[in-house]
Amino acid sequence: MAQTEKKGGLLRKSSASKKPLKEKVVLMYDDIFMTEDPTKRNPRFWEELFLMKVNLEYLEGKLEALDGEELMKIKDNINCLFQHCIQALGEEHPIRVVNALQTLCALIRGVHQKNKSTSGFDIINMLVGFDKAELCMKNLMESLDSLLCAEGSESLKSLCLKLLLCLVTVTDNISQNTILEYVMINSIFEAILQILSSPLSRREHGYDAVVLLALLVNYRKYESVNPYIVKLSIVDDEATLNGMGLVIAQALSEYNRQYKDKEEEHQSGFFSALTNMVGSMFIADADEKISVQTNEAILLALYEAVHLNRNFITVLAQSHPEMGLMTTPTSPIPTTPVTPLGTTPPSSDVISSAELPLDADVQTSNLLITFLKYSSIVMQDTKDEHRLHSGKLCLIILTCIAEDQYANAFLHDDNMNFRVNLHRMPMRHRKKAADKNLPCRPLVCAVLDLMVEFIVTHMMKEFPMDLYVRCIQIVHKLLCYQKKCRVRLHYTWRELWSALINLLKFLMSNETVLLAKHNIFTLALMVVNLFNMFITYGDTFLPTPSSYDELYYEIIRMHQNFDNLYSMVLRLSTNAGQWKEPASKVTHALVNIRAIINHFNPKIESYAAVNHISQLSEDQVLEVVRSNYDTLTLKLQDGLDQYERYSEQHKEAAFFKELVRSISINVRKNLAFNTLSQELLLKEFSTIS
Questions:
Q1: Mind listing the pLDDT tens digit for each residue in 326-337?
Q2: 43 FRET partner, CA 20 to 30 A, in 7, 298, 461, 551?
Q3: Residues of CATH 1.25.10 domain(s) within the chain?
Q4: CATH for 24-186+658-688?
Q5: Could you read off the pLDDT of 230-282 as tens digits, one per residue?
Q6: Is residue 59 within 8 Å of residue 105, measured between CB atoms?
């Protein structure tokens, strides 16, 4: 007997030449696309439709094939289909509910596709009709809310979230999506929180719920009062906030794990062997091939939580076993497919501190550590646009953390020491650090390490000025806290000082190229003022008196760089060009650094002459420094420990608008509604009591 094939809603025998037969559901769709009411020929039309397996491809294709005028002719039937879908959501038969949810997805996407043309008809009117829109959308949102909160099918909940994600991302710019007004009025915020607070629901649907919330928070956030922003900012339930943190931590951990796997695979390959053979001249090219898609959607969720909710800060430090070292617990097959860029859901083993006990032999971690590791990977390569956006968002999140008093308290807590293995960019002049040699230190050390690593590794022709400014601001904010609270942090400050001096050297060496694109004096002033902060207040927060001596030693040792900087800014500040004012600010800021150099250099030369030494050792220079502090005169500089607080609306609105647009496009592109086969659903529903 000939094999039967199915394609695009058609049934045909492969060996026969007869006209293909259409599926019954396709014939019913064709009836909807006629101008007359389909119930005239079949009074039970709508009852039967939702028992048929949905053909998403055919329905969406049919809608897209019509022009605006043709679509308006069948508007009444489209309205009827939309309303009957909403009615079917209240049915007891789960198959009807599933088919109704999938049909709604196809309808919304198909009608929105048409709106991209010049026909310009109103979407809401086309889907539900203006007169019934408010009531219909209220019923739809209430039904979705009930399904999400009910103790029923996980597959139905998954489809509900998919429908909501479809609804939110159907336009590139979500703020232009007028349907979302109804999602604002009929809030599903509590349903999202319920998913995040329950271990089972979170494991199955946490990722979609968190991405959905992040997108809803960004709907017209600068133009009107967004209830999701208001509600997210006041959530104080520990289980819910921890649940959200665990979903984010798991997604970031998954990224870190994938990157590490690719890195190991890369290093063990032929190219690695070849690189070892011929030296490290190809090392940068080798590393560029290690690419894992970034996840801006989950990063946006972390940002919104940190930025809007003060209570979420405590979640950053919540200890849990390091996810990469855990054995994966058995869990149901996730209904969410693995998809790229901005929508990649993690595997379904989201860890809850209540679900998995801490093991003394397992390295403990927390969301902040996972995030710092993620940042260290994405910030390595800022040439790629998505990584650049991710890197910028990582620095914005760290800026919010560095400004928060409570976050600073646990960052600097001596009793909270962790071993944080950050990823370091392969460079010719340094060896790769061994993971095992990492010391346990307060978390702020890892943040400073990340900033130093970025400063050292991004001095290039395509200079990421904006990211450098953010880096220096984060260091400054952490120093302000240390000065204010007199925290003496045992950190290798020399690495930071050396990185900052090398940055100044780079700015001077590339003055002409950089000035064509950037105001390098803003950055130079910030770097110089960091040194001024150490000079003026270092005795209150540097760990030992010898650390303060070492600061002076570094300034004196590298005095040529400061002399060259002074010459450059003096030259530009005495000219009448566009850089006169910013350059003169740097000139004034260098006053104490120049005083130190001019005070100690003659003393060091005199010491060398008296003792007949051609080149002094570090200890000898430090001896000269210690014995000549008394005669050094410095000027008190105001405002060194002051900074402008982060403000999203005034400075970052354009960035977030573009970022959310990119996330919306990718979420929409990767949504899958037909991942649930009818057989799986029937099997699941047969076991539901």
A1: 333 333 333 333
A2: 7
A3: 24-186+658-688
A4: 1.25.10
A5: 999 999 999 999 999 999 999 999 999 999 888 887 777 645 555 554 444 33
A6: no
